[in-house]
Specification:
alpha/beta; 6% strand; 5 strands; five-stranded parallel sheet; 59% helix
Length: 247
């Protein structure tokens, strides 16, 4: 493990993930890693119960960096477990961060309106339950059930920044806003600046579009299945009527 990012989600963590992988510090462990391989959620759920007993070498085996949740939730433990790793604290204006998180992550955790939940309900698999539990757990451990309290959420955000600054030696830490581009990141990591734009992905519009697309796929699938059932039922009724009239 070479790079540990201690910043909250919605501070450019997806952009930072792509940038680190472009610079040769990949693969990078990100929440999308767990979404692609939900069995990994068990490790983090167990770590939340007893972080001092977690086998961080095993959990992060094969990865050169970690950005965003779930790793950022355990930033203290990871920084101590990997004493040679450099630390990046991704930041942004706290009020802008809250606006972004309150319109993306928070609504996603709350779920769609009741009617849509009824239309899209299915029995969750074990992997679905593990992933949902982890995503909610990371959010609740940071913010409890009070994210709607803007002042408290912003205070948690700013306290993380102060805590990381106090815990990590200055020569091991980069406090970084992704809008600064390649230069400070590459200088900190000691690598050349790429001759290409900084990668950009998962801004608020992209996040919301991805959520809508995923929901519409589920709704569309349910609609097609319902239509198929309706056609099948109508055909069955027609066959039954024909058989009765022929007898």
């Amino acid at each position: 493990m070479q790079i540990i990012c201690a910043g909250f989600l919605r501070t450019g963590t997806t952009t930072l993930t792509l940038a680190l992988e472009r610079l040769g510090f990949g693969p990078c462990y990100h929440m999308r890693t767990v979404q692609a391989e939900p069995w990994r959620a068990e490790d983090w759920i167990a770590a939340a119960a007893e972080p001092a007993a977690a086998d961080w070498e095993r959990i992060l085996s094969g990865f050169e960096s970690t950005v965003g949740d779930p790793g950022a939730l355990f930033w203290r433990h990871l920084i101590d477990a990997f004493p040679d790793a450099k630390v990046i604290l991704s930041v942004r204006d706290p009020q802008q961060w809250y606006e972004s998180a309150s319109r993306t992550i928070f609504p996603a955790l709350e779920g769609p309106p009741l009617l849509l939940r009824l239309l899209t309900w299915r029995r969750p698999s074990r992997e679905d339950r593990l992933l949902d539990r982890l995503q909610r757990l990371t959010w609740e451990l940071d913010f409890g059930n009070d994210f709607a309290d803007r002042d408290r959420a912003v205070e948690v955000f700013t306290r993380r920044i102060a805590d990381v600054r106090a815990h990590v030696p200055a020569d091991r830490l980069l406090v970084y806003d992704v809008r600064e581009g390649w230069e400070p990141l590459c200088a900190f990591l000691g690598v050349p600046v790429p001759d290409e734009p900084m990668p950009r992905e998962n801004d608020r519009a992209a996040f919301q579009a991805r959520q809508r697309s995923a929901l519409m796929r589920v709704v569309g699938d349910r609609a097609r299945k319902a239509a198929a059932i309706g056609v099948g039922a109508a055909l069955t009724a027609w066959v039954v009527r024909r058989l009765r009239s022929a007898s």
